[in-house]
Amino acid sequence: MRLFRIPAVVPALLLIAAVSAVAGPKRHWQTGTLVDAGRKHDLAVGGAASRTRPPFPPGGVVPISNGVPEVGTYVIETAELRLELEAMVPAKGSEFEHEVIVGQPVTFALEKNTVYVKLANGREHRLRVVKESPKKED
């Protein structure tokens, strides 16, 4: 039986192809200004809408629910665009909230109904687009 030798270049090419596939999609990054930030209650986030009451624990003390989760709301503006955004997970002092400051520039990518904001450590934070409109001239 004859063995075939694979040139050393083939495994290297396969490794490069695998790494580039894992790297993720290329986003169209742009810069805007975070002009507003806040919070609102949202039943659809965090499972509160479908939560059932837990069983009584031993001792008969009924646990108190934490209530309706709060989500962050944000507005980013560019020279020609205004994006009203909403977090997709409960706020709870997220890394994103600690890094962004109203009035400061943010780097973001808009893809359909999702905005990805680039954080200082290189990670991305995903937000849902609530409203997209042309920026009104003052």
Could you give a quick summary of the protein structure above?
The chain contains two helices and six strands; from the N terminus they run αβββαβββ.
What does it look like?
The protein is mostly beta strands. It contains two helices and six strands. It has a domain at 27-45 and 66-138: OB fold (Dihydrolipoamide Acetyltransferase, E2P) (Beta Barrel). The longest helix has 14 residues, at 9-22. The protein has helices at residues 9-22, 95-99; strands at 29-41, 70-77, 81-87, 105-111, 114-118, 124-134. The chain starts with 8 loop residues before the first helix and ends with a strand. It has a six-stranded antiparallel beta barrel. Helices cover 14% and strands 37% of the residues.
Q: How would the blueprint of this fold be written?
A:
Layout: H1 9-22, E1 29-41, E2 70-77, E3 81-87, H2 95-99, E4 105-111, E5 114-118, E6 124-134
Q: Which key features would you list for this structure?
A:
138 residues, mainly beta, OB fold (Dihydrolipoamide Acetyltransferase, E2P), six-stranded antiparallel β-barrel, 6 strands
CATH architecture of one domain: Beta Barrel
- Poorly predicted residue ranges: none
Q: Which fold does the CATH topology of one domain refer to?
A: OB fold (Dihydrolipoamide Acetyltransferase, E2P)
How helical, in percent, are the residues?
Answer: 10-25%
Give the overall shape, derived from the CA principal axes.
extended
Percent of residues in beta strands? 35-45%
> Number of helix segments?
2
**Radius of gyration (Å):** 23 Å
Instruction: Determine and state the CATH class of one domain.
Output: Mainly Beta
Structural class: mainly beta
Summarize the biggest pleated sheet. 6 strands, antiparallel, barrel
Spatial strand sequence of the major β-sheet: 1-2-3-6-5-4
Number of strands: 6
Give the SSE string. Answer: HEEEHEEE
**Average of per-residue pLDDT values:** 77
Distance separating the two termini: 80 Å
